[in-house]
Amino acid sequence: MADVLGRWRLERLPSPSRLGAVLVPAASILLALVAGGLIVALAGQNPLAVYGAMLAGALGSRNGLAETLVKTTPLLLTGLGVAVAFRMRLWNIGGEGQFYLGAIVATWIALFGLPDAGGWALVPAMIAAGLLGGALWGLIPGALRAYLGANETIVTLMLNYVAILLADWLVHGPWKDPQAFGFPGTPRFSSAAALPALAPTRVHLGLLFGVTAAAVLWVLFRRTRWGYEIGVMGESDRAARYAGMPTRRTILLVMALSGALCGLAGMSEVAGIGQQLQRNLSPGYGYTAIIVAWVGRLHPGGIVVVAFVLAALLVGGDQIQMSMGLPAAIAPMLQGIVLFFLLGGELLTRYRLVRHPAPSDAAATGAGT
Amino acid sequence: MTITRRALVGSLSALALSGATVTVRGGLAATQEATPAGGGEPIKVAFIYVSPVGDLGWTWAHDQGRIALQEAMPNVETVFQESVPENPADAERVIRQFAEDGARIIFTTSFGYMDPTINVAESYPETVFVHISGFKTAANVGTGFGKIEEPRYVSGLIAGEMTESNQIGYVAAFPIPEVIRGINGFTLGVRETNPEATVRVVWTSTWFDPQKERQAAEALLDGGADVIAQHQDTPGPQQAAAARGAFGVGYNADMGTIAPDAVLTSPIWHWEVFYIDTVQKVLDGTWEPTQYWGGWQDGLVDLAPIGPMVPEDVRAMAEAEIDRFKSGEATIYTVFTGPINDQSGQERVPTGTAMTDEELLGMNWFVEGVEGEIPS
């Protein structure tokens, strides 16, 4: 690093400027659009036409906007979920597994726990099940970290595979729909298990869960002692202990809350969209959540915005092939470019490049040999 | 041999593609030629694919069908979306978007699109939906599939003759009836020419993952297999066989173009047969939400050219068999006529009895000679 930068050093800014916090992301997105436009132009299309089609696809019609909100829902809930842990510097990479566990437990309630219950009993029970399933899947690595010092990054990551394979096993095996000629997937839930949706679109109650969770977390982080403690413990475990903060208990609570929100995302996806558990329920929401959380700077409001923007990019990305005839792979490429520039810009709002005075020429050449 | 096969399919000149597979790849050129010409109101036909059109496999075969449709019917404008995940959120969104954009007919070409197709179809009663490889229909939803087990059976006859270790590996995607039926059809062919041979199955749980498919094939080769068959969407398993000097049986496209020294032959699709027929019926107003299941005689399924490593007598035997299927003398029903035992040696289909469509479409057990398990 030192060799690459020479005498230039990255220095943390004493306090990030408020103006920069708005201007830099805006400039980052603009630059990303220019860079992405070059690729689109190389592929033989007019970048402005492609961006126009993407915008229209994501936001320009009732159906497009609705689908963007549908896509926002799991990204928002899982983004908030992992952000809770990240604020305490707990690296919960397990949002994907917690998502699946929430979906699995909610499915159990719908199919076996309370199959004949009415919507007023069933939906709340499924919500509780989703929260509990995710919380449990967060608590396992939380407890291993709190009591044994096990690295939660590795444990949460490995539990993802366990949860995904558990779902695979259930839909291929014991929960397989007997009417489906041996094809994987559970039977459809009863209509009472479906989350209310804004007909004729697919926007469902899960979106409200996400927005509510964001508001609650905002209050929690800003206005409560507990929220403050999480931040302190994240910054310095020793300082927190010195101040008498209950680190272990907080790790458990934070991992449970983090997992619960991801589990709620899984529950609202099975109950809001497909009304059945099947393979590939998530195209990697738990991983995209990590990007959502960081680009949103672990701030609930920021996460709402980023989840929506990313959802719009994903939904608008369909238009790249549907109406412009470009290869579908260009869509994720554009999304990658936007994220790359946003995260790069982030560095510039927090740090600045400083040129250090040369110590001496002899020392500089000496370092190289 | 190639000539007779093409002659069968007759007027569909676009089929000549089966010989020169790699030339038309990628999605770029594809939609741009979609300028409707000729009289009448142009109609839009949409295709939803599970993997990239350049996979030289399942999606590639469907896209060849789309291109042939486009060429055969100038009044048709085709559009498509590749790599659409099979989860309900994404699949349903893309299908819905095509319906919103005014597609008259929407072909959804992977099993996982079944419920999303049914869901969207409810909201767009004027649009015709055709789901490939599933079993659910509605007033405006039909299904289409092919009896690929017919060419798979003949490829099994060849593989049975070619194996020396009497162990054939089969890289398979998912334990669903479509794949199980294919393994069984192939194995019945293998055991016909070589009752000593067994077919060992490895599940990958993916349609499209070049590396995973290749690794599965390598594991089978390590275990002693010397012919690798596959129900996967990439030539990965065939490349693995080629790298070890083993033989292979491809799928979907003529994979001999990728691994010429290894590939004995490949069961392949001519989806244009179904696509052109379906679009014509919709235009004529005679379309019905049927469950189409086409065979070799219909031209929907076929066998790619047999590789030069196959000895003359085996080739002659296979070609005689191919002619029987093309004439309709042999069919999937003659392949699946008893006596057929299951893995445990117990008789499942009595002598002289043919399995019914329902039994075939829901097949969830392996025939004798298959090594592997169906998870339950």
Question: What are the SSEs and their pairings?
Answer:
The complex is a heterodimer of chains A (369) and B (376).
Chain A: H1 2-5, E1 8-12, H2 18-42, H3 47-59, H4 62-87, H5 95-113, H6 119-148, H7 152-172, H8 206-223, H9 225-235, H10 237-242, H11 247-274, H12 285-295, H13 300-322, H14 330-350, E2 351-355, H15 361-368
Antiparallel strand pairs in A: 1-2
Helix pairs in contact in A: 2-3, 2-14, 3-4, 3-13, 4-8, 4-11, 4-12, 4-13, 5-6, 5-7, 5-11, 5-12, 6-7, 6-11, 8-9, 8-11, 8-13, 12-13, 13-14
Chain B: H1 2-9, H2 28-32, E1 43-48, H3 58-72, E2 76-81, H4 88-100, E3 105-108, H5 114-123, E4 128-132, E5 141-146, H6 149-162, E6 167-172, H7 177-193, E7 198-203, H8 210-222, E8 227-231, H9 236-243, E9 247-249, E10 263-265, E11 267-269, H10 272-284, E12 291-294, E13 301-303, H11 312-327, H12 332-335, E14 340-341, E15 347-349, H13 357-361, E16 370-371
Parallel strand pairs in B: 1-2, 1-3, 3-4, 4-5, 5-12, 6-7, 6-8, 7-16, 8-9, 9-10
Antiparallel strand pairs in B: 11-13, 14-15
Please describe the structure with a list of short key phrases separated by commas or semicolons.
heterodimer; A: 369 residues; mainly alpha; ABC transporter involved in vitamin B12 uptake, BtuC; disordered C terminus; B: 376 residues; alpha/beta; Rossmann fold; six-stranded parallel β-sheet; 16 strands; disordered N terminus
Structure report:
The complex is a heterodimer of chains A (369) and B (376). Chain A has helices at residues 2-5, 18-42, 47-59, 62-87, 95-113, 119-148, 152-172, 206-223, 225-235, 237-242, 247-274, 285-295, 300-322, 330-350, 361-368; strands at 8-12, 351-355. Chain A is mainly alpha-helical and 369 residues long. Chain A has a domain at 71-325: ABC transporter involved in vitamin B12 uptake, BtuC (Orthogonal Bundle). Chain A has a two-stranded antiparallel sheet with strand order 1-2. In chain A, helix 6 (119-148) packs antiparallel against helix 11 and helix 8 (206-223) crosses helix 9 (225-235). The longest helix of chain A has 30 residues, at 119-148. Chain A starts with a helix and ends with a helix. With 376 residues, chain B is α/β, with parallel strands linked by helices. In chain B, strand 8, helix 9 and strand 9 (247-249) form a beta-alpha-beta unit. The longest helix of chain B is centred in the middle third of the chain and has 17 residues, at 177-193. Mean pLDDT of chain B is 89; it is low at 1-39. Chain A binds chain B through residues 43-44, 57, 61, 63-64, 67, 70-71, 74, 168-169, 172-173, 176, 180-185, 188, 200, 202, 269, 273-274, 276, 278-283, 315, 318, 321-323, 325-329, and chain B through 26-28, 30-32, 34, 52, 79-83, 85-90, 92-94, 96-98, 100-101, 111-112, 115, 123, 135, 174-177, 180, 205, 361-364, 375-376.
